Amino acid sequence: MSTDPFTRRRILVTGVGANPGFGLTRSLTRLGHKVVAADAHPLAPGFLLPEVEPQLIPLATDPAYPAVMAQLCRDLAVEAVVAGIENDLAPLVAMREHLAAGGVRLWLPDAESVRVCIDKAAFHQVLTGHRVPTPRTWRAHAIDQVPDRTPLVVKPARGHGAQNVHFVDRREHARALCDLVPQALIQERVHGLEFTADCLVDDTGRASAVLRRRNLVKAGLATVSTTFDDLTVRDTVLRTLRAVRARGVCCVQGFVTDDHEVTITELNVRIAGGFPLAEAAGADLVGQMVNGLFGLPVDHDALTYRPGVYLTSYTETLAVGDAADLERLAVAKGAAS
User: Model confidence over 197-256: pLDDT tens digits?
Assistant: First the structure.
């Protein structure tokens, strides 16, 4: 069912304690939508954004998560749910039919596509099968197959937010880390220009992508970025989206190597933390995401952008106060629902 693009919606955003969910919440409220800001941490900074309705929810791994989310959607007349963090994707996909029966919209690819994007080993396998360039990857049990003196990255197969990511130059060090990193995966380390593509794929499979150089990266977040355009990078990103059958908003990351080759490292089934640069460069990313979320056509002409626009960001003190006050507020909101 298509709806008026100017209708103000009630949208629940999860993971408002992290950059993607926080930024998405702020962008949605600026567009006039009512946001239910949800997070498992009572001090999540997104709870403090103006005009949001904060809601404390269980961790996605908690057995109570589906029931709590369904109840929130009913009690608060939520019209759509958008995941701002990877952990929420699997339980939300499992709830898709139940939420849809209550009139709550999700805009996610099919369950297998989500699984492939969450699991870095499966992602590597799919991209390799579709001849999309991606770093060589090994499971921990196959570490003896790693060539000597290969620069490596050891990371969780289902990790996110640059957590438990380690760079090493020797296979012996990678072997030791495999005992410490959960579900360890070993990848060849790639050097070069690091980039993110902010992507929106409509229900026909047509995709738009805004390319950003990650000029300065700290703890996995791009603190300085610049928009650019490159036909080879764009083509590789679009091939990646087709390979995993992406739908909705997502972000692709990769490198242009020192040998001018493009290689893809991951695809996140959520908006990127640095997406405000895409909007500053002229792309109506969140507005068109809302259109697609509610069954309206995505206007790809509104997703064009200007190369050469930069964004710098820094950590800012959002609020200082009594932690117990904010915790009581979040708990009270959750109890009231």
Answer: 999 999 999 999 999 999 887 766 777 899 999 999 999 999 999 999 999 999 999 999
pTM for this model (two decimals): 0.89
Residues 184, 190, 196, 197, Cα dihedral to 10°: -100
Give the tokens for residue 205.
Answer: 């499979």
Nearest to 52, CA basis, from 281, 336, 333: 333
| Residue spans per domain, the chain | 10-106+317-336, 136-188, 191-306
Architecture in CATH for domain 136-188: 2-Layer Sandwich (3.30)
> What SS3 class is residue 302?
helix
Q: What is the CATH number of domain 191-306?
A: 3.30.470.20
Under 8 Å between Cβ of 137 and 156: no
DSSP 105: B
What is the rounded CA–CA span in Å between residue 77 and residue 133?
44
